[in-house]
Structure formats: C-alpha cells, structure tokens
C-alpha cells in the first residue's frame, strides 16, 4: 500500500515538472506583456539651464527665502536693531506686559547704539513695582501693565 502511494506521488511530481501549470505561464505573460507610455510631468523646468550656476534666491527655502523676498520689497521681517531709544530715568524704556513682571534682555554697553560686538545678553526681571536699571549700561526699564486682548473665535 505504501509502495502504491509512493509511486502515485512520484508520477504527479514528474507530470508537474514536465508540464508547467497554465496559471504560472499566463501570469508571466501578463506581467511583461506591454508597456504604458510615461506620463508628462505637470511641472516644467526652466529651459537652457546648462552651464548656469543657480543664484542664492534660486536655492533658498523657508525663512531664508522669506527674508530675501522681503528685502527685495524693501522690508525687514526680523528686528535687527534696538526698537526704542536709550532708556533714561526721565524717559525709560517701557515694557508692556499682562503680568506684574517680565524677563527682558539687554546687550549691555548699548549707550552708543552699536551692539554688534556684544555677544552676551544680560537677562533680568523687570517688575511693575519700580524701574530697573541695567548694571552694565545704566539703561532704565519700566513695566507697564496692560489688559490682555480678547479673541473671539
């Protein structure tokens, strides 16, 4: 009985080797049967770009590109200089806040107005109780408490 089962298995194996299945041949034909044309791109690259070095504006992205585009319009998107004149006891720098205190930074030695060589910012706490005097440049800061804005969403 075992010999009969073995001979039947060998016969089926030999048939499958000699005659490949129809589904395997059909799937191979379908896979390689034709080629679809490549779609045209929806974007168009500039013509005549051979031997051309792109400019900084061509390569800029993000905030750098936004800054370049703003400068082309004569605008600045970042504050680069002090926003108020030097604060004195008669005319202090007014810091607005909805709280009773606020952390403020001063580059120090800013009486001349040129702070490009100062790399350290001195941070201090300005309160609404009394004006604060910067220990390095003697600039005077005072806090003005304002009402918070109400947003209607």
From TrEMBL:
One of its GO terms (cellular component) is respiratory chain complex IV. Pfam families: COX5B. GO terms for molecular function: metal ion binding. Coiled coil: none annotated. One of its GO terms (biological process) is mitochondrial electron transport, cytochrome c to oxygen. Keywords: Metal-binding, Zinc. InterPro entries: Cyt_c_oxidase_su5b, Cyt_c_oxidase_su5b_sf. The keyword Zinc applies. It comes from the Eukaryota. The keyword Transport does not apply. This is Cytochrome c oxidase subunit Vb. It comes from Guillardia theta (strain CCMP2712). The lineage of its organism: Eukaryota, Cryptophyceae, Pyrenomonadales, Geminigeraceae, Guillardia.
């Amino acid at each position: 009985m075992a010999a009969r089962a073995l001979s039947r298995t060998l016969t089926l194996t030999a048939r499958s080797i000699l005659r490949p299945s129809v589904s395997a041949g059909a799937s191979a034909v379908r896979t390689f049967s034709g080629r679809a044309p490549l779609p045209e791109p929806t974007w168009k690259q500039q013509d005549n770009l051979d031997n051309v070095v792109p400019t900084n504006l061509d390569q800029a992205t993000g905030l750098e590109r936004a800054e370049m585009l703003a400068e082309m319009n004569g605008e600045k998107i970042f504050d680069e200089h002090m926003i108020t004149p030097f604060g004195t006891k008669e005319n202090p720098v007014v810091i607005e806040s909805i709280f009773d205190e606020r952390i403020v930074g001063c580059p120090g030695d800013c009486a001349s107005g040129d702070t490009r060589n100062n790399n350290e910012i001195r941070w201090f706490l300005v309160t609404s109780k009394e004006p604060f005097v910067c220990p390095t440049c003697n600039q005077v800061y005072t806090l003005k408490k304002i009402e918070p804005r109400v947003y209607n969403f």
